[in-house]
Amino acid sequence: MEERKRLTPAAAKQKIYRYCAYQERSHQEVRDRLYEYGLYTTDVDEILSQLITEGFLNEERFARAFAGGKFRMQRWGRVKIVHELEAHGLTKNCIKAGLKEIDDEDYQRVLYDVLDRKLAQLDTTNPFVTRDKLARYAIQKGFEPDLVWPRVKDLVPV
Predict the structure, then answer these.
(1) Which residues of 9-20 are buried (b: 16+ CB within 10 A; e: fewer)?
(2) What is the dihedral of CA 54, 55, 58, 64, to 10 degrees?
(3) Confidence band (pLDDT; 50, 70, 90) for 5?
(4) CB 141 within 8 A of CB 76
(5) Quick one: average pLDDT of 89-100?
(6) Is 117 exposed, middle or buried (0-12, 13-18, 19+ CB in 10 A)?
(7) Structural contact between residues 148 and 139, judged by C-beta atoms closer than 8 angstroms
């Protein structure tokens, strides 16, 4: 197994500033990266607090960027986005702020588009199988079942 070279706190600080400047990061991502550099907990905590103080790290800003990006680019639903933000260790308030980036009309439009595209790919003749596959796909992408099923039933009448 390859042993990594331990960085000095000053070198790690320089590297982590570039890492944070490149794109929004969660506190957990930065903490993990600093530990990968071989730093001790006291150094990690000190660098983290400096990053927060200087505005390089902001969890609410990260939540907004993450939620908006995953919705627009990956076409994820709110449920999946919330789970991922929770996995990053964000607070409920930050998650709520991130979800405000998703407009309700856009959300409905994306859900409809996701279902329409998936329907065009399916080649099943049984309407119940088609409904099931459509609903599973959209729910797996993070859309709420109570939004998915009415649209699926409209798209695939029995």
Answers:
(1) beebbeebeebb
(2) -170
(3) confident
(4) yes
(5) 96
(6) exposed
(7) yes
DSSP state of 152: H
Letter for the amino acid at 49?
S
2: pLDDT strictly greater than 90: no
Buried b (16+ CB within 10 A) or exposed e, 53-62: eeebbbbeeb
Mean pLDDT value across residues 82-97: 97
The reported pLDDT for the residue numbered 1 is 53
pLDDT tens digits for 108-134?
999 999 999 999 999 999 999 999 999
What does the alpha-carbon distance between residue 89 and residue 60 come to, in Å, rounded to a whole number? Answer: 12
The CA distance from 7 to 31, in Å, is 14
